[in-house]
Amino acid sequence: MTEHEHVRVAVIGSGFGGLGAAVRLRREGITDFVVLERAGSVGGTWRDNSYPGCACDVPSHLYSFSFAPNPEWPRTFSGQEHIRAYLEHVADVFRLRPHLRFDSEVKMMTWDAEKLHWAIETSSGRLTADIVVSATGPLSDPKVPDIPGIDTFPGKVFHSARWDHDYDLRGKRVAMVGTGASAIQIVPSIQPDVERLTLFQRTPPWVMPRVDRAISGAERWLHRQLPFTTQARRGLLWGIRELQVQAFTKRPDELGLVERLAKRNIARAVKDPALRAKLTPDYRIGCKRILLSNTYYPALTRPNVDVVASGLAEIDGSTLVAADGSRAEVDAIVFGTGFHVTDMPIAERVVGAEGRTLAETWSTGMKSLRGATAAGFPNWMTIIGPNTGLGNSSMILMIESQLNYMADFVRQLDVLGGRAALDARPAAVDAWNDRVQERMKRTVWNTGGCTSWYLDANGVNTTIWPGTTSEFRSATRRVDLGEYEVLRAPEPRDAGEPRRKGARRNKVEAGA
């Protein structure tokens, strides 16, 4: 990366969002772009999360790009290694390698109002870009709770997303802190090998059976020979999940039947009434993400496993103390405590038109226009932005919708011509956010009686989309210029004319 490199588009991150953006830019005929990646390879969260048992809880044929179907998925729910290999394959097939800049962590992005571009400082150099597409993802920066006394712990400590493969857990006393999607995969994977496993459970999850199986050679042959069968399989998986959305967003009481099935799942695997009581949630199913596993509950019944139905409160040397006073001597602590989702660290590194960081702008809650753009941050957009998450389907569907919006955003700038930028109008951002939050009021995520990572520090759901993926795709099909201000570079001035400060803003009506 040279000191004076300038590109049309800078994409941040090389997970599904970043690689998808790169493919879409190439398909739009744009080759003047780079993908800035802080690590040394592509993959995003599927590179970082390599813990034992790591796999996706969305069916493989739905958890892949529609423009890059994979007839070779080995299982209906594929593991981390297969998903990461798929992303490497996408980078190769779509000739993205020349655009990738590895070991280039973004330190700061600052909007230059005079030149109408972003000045980007990375760990490998500096560059400027007309447009920034931030695809860092919400599950990229691990969150480790600040437990009193953790500095005194003499053993090994790591987060599930930063698994230490050099540390052998066999024969060790291990604490698993957290009971989210990662923990229910880790627990049954390490339980047979450790001396003792203590699970610190603040809130029990709802866990349903995982209907997983190997995809036969005959099925894979059929998908290779008749590609429409892959599309049909994907379409069926999508349609089923679209039909489920109403129960999550409008009629949470309909989830009662699913809840009874989940309780039956607990009863089949856990015969001890006391343990079963610990593992049975007291909130509506769906309020937190419904987890899938056939091995989690059986693992918790094994003699070398203790379930502490209380959060970890403090650490005293090698002794872990729960909020209920329970104590456990351990050699290693694994935190499965999630990520910085509503307080993404990348927001602290984006400085907008008014000199404020995105983190400061979002200090009272994340909000954007159609999940993509933020007022005061011209020519900047995010993939998997505020209120684009899903509680029951594939995020790849939402990513592809946002790629449609990104492509039209670039087209609109080309139509405007010259040095121009688009800045989301505050009123448009507020109007969109108000509509989303009004719809959110009756969803299971807001009414289900739980506290989840979907909610920010103020208790506002700034992560989930309260509708179908079809609705979101329709809402992001085109950029409405009426929702944006057009910024133009300062006009040339005469020698004696005072210097204007910054770019001038042109009012553009809808449809202009």
From TrEMBL:
It comes from the Bacteria. Residues 489-512 are annotated as: Disordered. Gene3D superfamilies: FAD/NAD(P)-binding domain. Keywords: FAD, Flavoprotein, Oxidoreductase. Residues 489-500 have a biased composition (Basic and acidic residues). Belongs to the FAD-binding monooxygenase family. This is NAD(P)/FAD-dependent oxidoreductase. It comes from Streptomyces siamensis.
